[in-house]
């Protein structure tokens, strides 16, 4: 396996090759498909997002994770979705490129949750905003340490 996503994690068109599996989002009936070293962090993040920011809509299929593809608008950069290290939440409410889709008073908490779980929020991108999008910016070793620190892994 020689492919890596934009954040440097192993990526593959064959999700089994990188061990992608479903992770339940506590408090919902939703599962997201992520890489093993990322799934616990991203599902725990999503559970807190659901509890503290806004409910993750269960009536619309607009929450996803693993998807083998390029970063939108590029032909040479694999999306972090390709490594199972990125999630999109409530995408129908927070469309790509839209700004200010969250109440301003929620933005500091979004940033704090992203930081807590080793993520970057697409709403903080310098170019085109992507407020539905959250991706890990830690490597697998850092992710493992963070999971231990947060009590997500023994």
Give an account of the 3D structure.
The structure is a single chain. This protein is an alpha+beta fold and 154 residues long. The protein has one domain (15-149): Muramoyl-pentapeptide Carboxypeptidase, domain 2 (2-Layer Sandwich). The protein has three helices and five strands, in the order ββαβαββα. It has helices spanning 36-53, 107-116, 140-149, and strands at 21-24, 31-34, 86-88, 119-121, 133-136. The protein has a three-stranded antiparallel beta sheet with strand order 3-5-4, with helices on one face. Strands 1-2 form a two-stranded antiparallel sheet. β1 (21-24) and β2 form a beta hairpin. The longest helix is centred in the first third of the chain and has 18 residues, at 36-53.
**Largest beta-sheet characterization:** 3 strands, antiparallel
How many domain regions?
1
Give Rg in angstroms.
Answer: 14 Å
- CATH topology description: Muramoyl-pentapeptide Carboxypeptidase, domain 2
């Amino acid at each position: 396996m020689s492919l890596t996503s934009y954040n440097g994690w192993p990526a593959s068109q064959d999700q089994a090759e990188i061990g992608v599996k479903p992770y339940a989002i506590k408090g919902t009936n939703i599962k997201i498909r992520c890489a093993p070293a990322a799934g616990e962090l991203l599902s725990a993040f999503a559970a807190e997002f659901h509890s503290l920011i806004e409910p993750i809509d269960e009536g619309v299929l607009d929450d996803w994770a693993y998807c083998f593809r390029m970063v939108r608008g590029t032909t040479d950069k694999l999306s972090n979705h390709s490594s199972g290290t990125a999630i999109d939440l409530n995408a129908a409410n927070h469309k790509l490129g839209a700004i200010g889709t969250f109440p301003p008073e929620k933005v500091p908490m979004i940033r704090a949750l992203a930081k807590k779980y080793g993520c970057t929020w697409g709403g903080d991108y310098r170019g085109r905003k992507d407020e539905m999008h959250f991706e890990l910016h830690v490597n697998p070793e850092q992710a493992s340490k963070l999971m231990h620190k947060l009590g997500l892994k023994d």
